[in-house]
Design goal:
Elements (H helix, E strand, L loop, with lengths): L3 H4 E11 L6 E6 L4 E8 L4 H5 L7 E5 L2 E2 L4 H9 L4 E11 L3 H5 L9
Antiparallel strand pairs: 1-6, 2-3, 4-5, 4-6
Length: 112
Amino acid sequence: METVEQLVSFNHIQVQLSGGAPWGFTLKGGLEHGEPLIITKIEDDGKAELSRKLRVGDELININGSALYGSRQEALILIKGSYRILKITVRSQIMKGSPAFLSEGFGGKGRL
């Protein structure tokens, strides 16, 4: 039987959203709640969706070059302080065997 580590791979994805708020995603969690900061919703036709890089379930780990320490309040301050451009890094989970896993080149398969 395979362990979770054998079935899941994590990928850090950098995303730049332009044009100012609203950015088109919703966050949940944070140190205050004993959970990681997770994207729980991507708005239809919003900037986050149009980037085609963010997914529900992605963990927010960096905003505008500032590493996050897990506080939702910290993340909201950094996001609201972004005037025209928001640069974020997320940790995205990819299930082995999924089309995304194969297209990312994991496991020796996919694009080169």
